[in-house]
Amino acid sequence: MDLHIFSNIQKHISLSESEKLYLRNALPVKELKRKELVLRQGQICRNLYYVESGSLRAFNLNDDGKESTIMFAIRDWWVTDMNGFVNQKKAQLSIEALEHCRLLELSYDLLERLYTEIPKFERFFRILFQNAYIREQQRAFHNIALSTEQRYQYFIDKYPDIVEKITQKQIATYLGVTPEFLSAVKKK
Amino acid sequence: MDLHIFSNIQKHISLSESEKLYLRNALPVKELKRKELVLRQGQICRNLYYVESGSLRAFNLNDDGKESTIMFAIRDWWVTDMNGFVNQKKAQLSIEALEHCRLLELSYDLLERLYTEIPKFERFFRILFQNAYIREQQRAFHNIALSTEQRYQYFIDKYPDIVEKITQKQIATYLGVTPEFLSAVKKK
DNA sequence: CGTCTATTTGAATGTACTCAAAAGCGGTGG
DNA sequence: CCACCGCTTTTGAGTACATTCAAATAGACG
Q1: Which domains does chain B have, with CATH numbers?
Q2: pLDDT digit string, tens, across residues A121-148
Q3: Distance between the alpha carbon (CA) of B33 and the C1' atom of D27, Å
């Protein structure tokens, strides 16, 4: 089987050929053009996406027009508005393609079925959420403990593959500072 | 059975009487006095704790002596340095009792055994980590998008049971501002 | 009751934002 | 393939947010 998602899943659990075949048929491919949205803030969030190729940005737009980037997703990452998805309610986030993307779409209903029919998916997503939790807690820690310069340095060191896909303005909205200020920090 | 942990677990999975008995015997009770540490930054983090009663604070102390509070934990919460715990490496955090505490201690080895021997624990912790991830992502979002005043308001609205256990200085280290500044924000 | 820590207050300093304008760069269409 | 257009990045001045340090006051614990 040729999909990256299988090796992603098999980092943590094993899959039989029939399970792969099942998944291949159950996961629609979604192609996105640059700047296209796969989720719009305010819509019900019905799917979890695996990124076969391309890159995306999940962001919130508030009433004052201020954008905050919640996460980036590149090849081999999973992305959605997780709060909206697990509670099947309106998304706080929009998710846009930063370039041409090829996604696999995992619906809420299918995921619930996977949990009951193939219980090892509980394990897979337990590990996925465990890692996601640790990452986000680290981020929250950095946000309260580190200077903008330190957080910028950490970001470009930790996510070089993301950095090459995005603009400095997008990094600024991820760090929670203005593009002007980030520019000034870099000059130093 | 009389432990709060059982109703905590049974929010998401069911437990037989024999499973409860097994857990009861497998989870040592740990009693802590006020200000005592259950984990010290730099130590290997061997346990995950369930809070039967009392309240705790997980924080990082950096080289300049600056404290950052990563989380609070009250009755019915789980707490540890999750990164240290799942990778069995040195803790970034210390965890101290804010008052007399009664904890249940779940070791790394026992948890790994639970995952394989009672697979529904994969589901339980999948849901636990899923919720933790959503919470931390929300926190990271607030850190980059909201003012100190808004984050303070959100915290006291969302966690009134925590607020009554802690000092304003501790809230300040959780929000990532100085106690002096938080005091000024409140006056307004 | 005394001591230690938390909280408040204020002044001086540093960090970050706003607004505006210029310069640079990339995508798109001709 | 080049040139234009729009967006990103830079620069700077003025303002607002947040910290540091010090000292006074208030509270809490033993």
Answers
A1: 4-118 (2.60.120.10)
A2: 999 999 999 999 999 999 999 999 999 9
A3: 22
